[in-house]
Amino acid sequence: MITDFSKDKLSVKIFDFLLPVIYGLAFYSWIIISEKILHNLNCPNYVPYLFFLPVVAMEIWTAYYLSPKEKILKFKKDLKIFLANITFYRFLVKLFLTVIGVLIFAFRHLLFQYLFFFLWVIYPLHPDISGFEWMSSHSPYVLQSLWLFPYARPFNSLIILILAALLYFFLWVKRRAGRIFFSISFFIIFLAVSYILFYFDAAGGQSKEEVIKQPGVSIILPYGNFYCGERLPRYPARYILPFRFPRCLQGDWEKAKLYVSFGSIWGHPLHCPHLIACDLDGRNLQTFLFSGRQVEPWQKTFREFQLEPQTKDFYISSWSQSFKIYRVDRTSLSVLEEIPFDYLKEEFVNYNLFDIVSDEQNNRLFFITGQPPLMAKVNLIEKTTKVMNLTKMGITELGSIIHIMRYDKKLNRIYAIVVTGDKGGLLIEADPENMALTRMLSLPGIVMVSLELDPENNEILVGMGLKKAIWVIDRETFKIKSSIPIPFPCIRRFDIDNENGFLYVVDYLHGYLYVIRRDSGETVTRYKVGNKPLGMVRNGSTVYVASVLGIIKIDTADLPALKPVK
Length: 566
What we know:
The chain is an alpha+beta fold and about 575 residues long. About 30% of the residues lie in helices and about 30% in strands. Helix 2 runs parallel beside helix 7 (about 110-125) and helix 7 (about 110-125) packs across helix 8.
């Protein structure tokens, strides 16, 4: 039972009640300061640990402040008895045990504080002793992206806030328990929110009934109708696939086929397919399971891919560790060829492939990665690779990511979005012949990746997620030409309809497909498509969207609002 130090002085009482908040603010402020001081210093490995000493001092003081006075007095009295009544040998033994007791008493929470300090300061500064070097440059990115949860799920956020307030009152104000829990709650909340919002279907969403009752909307391939890999009656697919949500949707209109990749940070232990293919009506389902029976399937999941109209096959790559590109047949989904590039292991540091584009006409393909931000060209005949590393060029930090790429075959130029920690975002243009950076445009704020080329108007369109806008960039001047306002953060896919003057934009946070006038940003109509729609393709007036419910087909031909813009 912790004593009240003053029942008369209101200021002390308030300090006592708000101690976890004050403690947490001091702890995180020191993390930010130490990060800023150490980030650009080429200091020895032991120096970041010295910055933890003020945290130790703060923890000792807080432990002393929160301890009953009588317990502290008893400890001091016992220590005096030790010093006065024992031999030197027994004194050393008992002093050692006493010191251990003091450390356990004073540092009982210090292990948790050290853990977070290690993850946020020491770990990112020394890649040679860590695997979280990306966290340092990404801390501004993740802090700014936290607001997406209250925006997407305001009711859930209010419930969480009320529960947190009740916990604080009953655990701390009434019982003086849980100081560390509340002081590190920001870190815990960030992790919980990130996983709920981006990786799980637990944040809510739309039902199948809500989607199919809309005119012109149908679910041609509901995921609950088939099982992943092996037939597992206890685990229906509707519970499995939201964990590895649909990542990328592509269409082959000549073969009348749709392809969906299921990529996430980890592979699923229940053998979900990495890729599925079906006809445009959802029939003739095929699944491609390329790592289901591996010991470590999370090392071999893949995410994005792009189908090029003139190519016979398409190319995919694992998410990490295997350092292979796979050439896959479009019809059978069988692996035709493995192209290893493990000789680049030292170059990649932490290999995570974010996008891949094939150019079979010139017998080459391109891919981009994060950690470090790297763009590579693979010669399919000679099996050689040429790399452009933005970190080694001094363009971005180690933790930055090249997150999406588009290749303009006519101009022979690669365009890509780079997500950085401290500089916001970058739009880069590269010459694929010598893999050289030709132009670069700074994009203020954090870019939540979406990028499309508009050759007809000689423009590049970039979805600026946190600014709720799509920026139009003139390709000749490589400058921002205009901004198209949209009613939600554009953090994923959009498609350009020049014939009607519209943009088809996926609202990943709320589960909608918007049809927006390109000239004004006015919403023409919107459709419910289910939770977490990531992939979207359009074939004339028919739009296909991949969400956790399945592949959604939307026929927009009969909408009276869809008229050409004069």
